[in-house]
Write a structure and sequence with these properties.
By secondary structure, the chain is α+β, with helices and mostly antiparallel strands. It is about 55% helix and about 20% strand. The protein has six helices and four strands, in the order αααααββαββ. It has a four-stranded antiparallel sheet, with helices on one face. The longest helix is centred in the middle third of the chain and has 37 residues. The radius of gyration is 21 Å and the shape is elongated.
């Protein structure tokens, strides 16, 4: 059975261009993507979910990722924290500094980073990441599920602080409890001399 679908002209043109780039007929390309979209929708997914996860994956493809059980990582961090706390915290800050460039390619401004953070929360062991603007230059960042021990929560804070710094924000205050991070930060004034 064949059916006709109506889409906006710009979308149809882009779809046709992408089919051509992939060396497929528009018919084959459309069937492939509509089938995937139907399966994702049937399982409760949305177009925004797919786009968000794709953006996260595009960042993760740029770095070598090793997936380890959370309990193992927590124990490893705890042991290092006991003997080399400053070095460990610096390593997490450096990780944030190294990744912020990739994140800015996918999420050029802090609002887009907030949208991306929602999808990161689904693949890293956090339950919620919320970035909220409180005024023109200030943000509140709340993370729930940032570790099961204060050691891992502190490491997560150093990582997040480095990311915020890369977006031009300085932490004004923070409150850390086991698994939760609450940050208030402000946009730095950049002076040109």
């Amino acid at each position: 059975m064949r059916a006709s679908l109506s889409v906006d002209r710009g979308i149809a043109d882009e779809f046709s261009t992408q089919a051509e780039h992939k060396g497929k007929t528009l018919y084959a390309f459309a069937n492939e993507w509509i089938e995937v979209a139907s399966k994702i929708s049937a399982e409760g997914g949305t177009a925004q979910d797919v786009l968000g996860h794709w953006r996260v994956c595009s960042i993760l493809k740029q770095v070598e990722i090793i997936t380890l059980p959370a309990d193992f990582v927590e124990e490893l961090i705890s042991k290092l924290y006991a003997t080399e706390k400053e070095n460990l915290l610096n390593m997490f800050a450096k990780l944030g500094e190294d990744l912020v460039g990739l994140m800015k390619m996918v999420a050029p401004d802090i609002e887009q980073l907030g949208d991306l953070a929602i999808h990161f929360a689904e693949i890293i062991p956090t339950k919620k990441i919320d970035i909220r603007r409180t005024d023109g230059n200030s943000l509140e960042v709340n993370v729930i599920g940032a570790g099961r021990m204060i050691e891992t929560t502190e490491c997560s804070f150093e990582f997040i602080k480095a990311i915020l710094n890369g977006y031009g924000y300085s932490v004004a205050s923070q409150e850390l409890h086991v698994g939760t991070i609450m940050i208030k930060c402000s946009k730095r004034n950049l002076r040109i001399s």
